[in-house]
Amino acid sequence: MKSPFKSRSDGSVGVRLDDRDRDLLESLPAYVLSKLDTDDGVVRRLFPPAYTEDPLRQAEYDSIVRSDLVSHHKSSLSVLEDTAHAKNLSADQAQGWLVALNDLRLVLGTQLDVKEETELPGPDDPTAPLVALYLYLGHLQWELVEALAARL
């Protein structure tokens, strides 16, 4: 199977995805973007705790870094949303895709309660489509890392 990403000599990355995949990638960030400014548990993996044993220090840490983290996630998700139909990504846009794909996987993984020992569901399982999406996003993330690493 041919990679959907191709590293270019000018530092950009070519994107070869069909329109359905591009439409999907364009639509996914909206859900996470709508949750970033909330306390919804599905985004908890985007904000890992620094002080698990000290709620007071954790609250102080959150007050210092949370808004910057939210801005970073919003920026990357917006890059994916805005460039989903691009045939070519700049190096910065490709980095934004990597962060956004990771964010999407973290949120889906939280919803699915994915753990190392999680087994793939059968085709009749109601979570099967979300698991397939989770795996597909992981595949895209891997392929993009490979394309970016080819330039090194």
Furnish the topology, listing elements before pairings.
Elements (H helix, E strand, L loop, with lengths): L4 E3 L5 E3 L3 H9 L1 H7 L19 H29 L4 E2 L1 H22 L15 H22 L3
Antiparallel strand pairs: 1-2, 2-3
Helix pairs in contact: 2-3, 3-4, 4-5
Helix and strand run: EEHHHEHH
Percentage of helical residues?
55-70%
For the termini, the CA-CA separation is 23 Å
Radius of gyration: 17 Å
Mean pLDDT metric: 95
**How are the strands of the biggest sheet laid out side by side?**
1-2-3
SS strand fraction: 5-15%
Low-confidence parts, pLDDT < 50 over ≥5 residues?
A: none
Bulk shape: globular
| Oligomeric composition of the shown chains | single chain
What is the count of DSSP helices, taking H or I runs of 4+ residues?
5
Largest sheet: 3 strands, antiparallel
Number of domains: 1
Give the class from helix and strand content and strand pairing: mainly alpha
Question: Which features characterize this protein?
Answer:
single chain, 152 residues, mainly alpha, three-stranded antiparallel beta sheet, 5 helices, 59% helix, globular
How does this model look, in words?
By secondary structure, this protein is mostly helical. The chain has one domain. 59% of the residues lie in helices and 5% in strands. The protein is built from five helices and three strands. It has helices at residues 19-27, 29-35, 55-83, 91-112, 128-149; strands at 5-7, 13-15, 88-89. The chain has a three-stranded antiparallel β-sheet with strand order 1-2-3. Helix 2 (29-35) packs antiparallel against helix 3 (55-83) and helix 3 (55-83) packs across helix 4. The two termini are 23 Å apart. 22% of the residues are buried.
